[in-house]
TrEMBL record:
GO molecular function per UniProt: glycosyltransferase activity
Gene from which this protein is expressed: GBSS
Coiled-coil ranges per UniProt: none
Record's protein name: Granule-bound starch synthase
Entry keywords, A to Z: Glycosyltransferase, Starch biosynthesis, Transferase
Entries under SUPFAM superfamilies matching the protein: UDP-Glycosyltransferase/glycogen phosphorylase (SSF53756)
Residue intervals passing through the bilayer: none
Any GO BP annotation: starch biosynthetic process
Originating species: Melastoma beccarianum x Melastoma malabathricum
Residues annotated as domain Starch synthase catalytic: 46-128
Amino acid sequence: SVNKLDMLHSGALTKAASGKVARKPKSTGTDGLAGKIVCSGGMPLIFVGTEVAPWSKTGGLGDVLGGLPPALAARGHRVMTIAPRYDQYKDGWDTCVVIQIRVGDQIETARYFHCYKRGVDRVFVDHP
């Protein structure tokens, strides 16, 4: 089944997924590479982690999810990160998407918050 978050991003992801992928001919240089794969239309990329800088960071993972996605977006890719919402992030707005998930005998509720910074969709999952 398709949820509301899927519907929010399906148009953009469909456009990004329609990019052509082509293989360049074998390299004859001294770099030792047999060839490169070039994606002319960008690729949809989603990074899921427990932390993302500058919102939450305790180690290197937060730095990676804070820096790599904007660099990939600058190269033409459609990039999204998903991480827990640990605090009231002033730049994350409530998407009004609420989901309920059955975990064992209980129903758990989660909300999605979103912000768009440096070419990257940042999604935060709030589970009180």
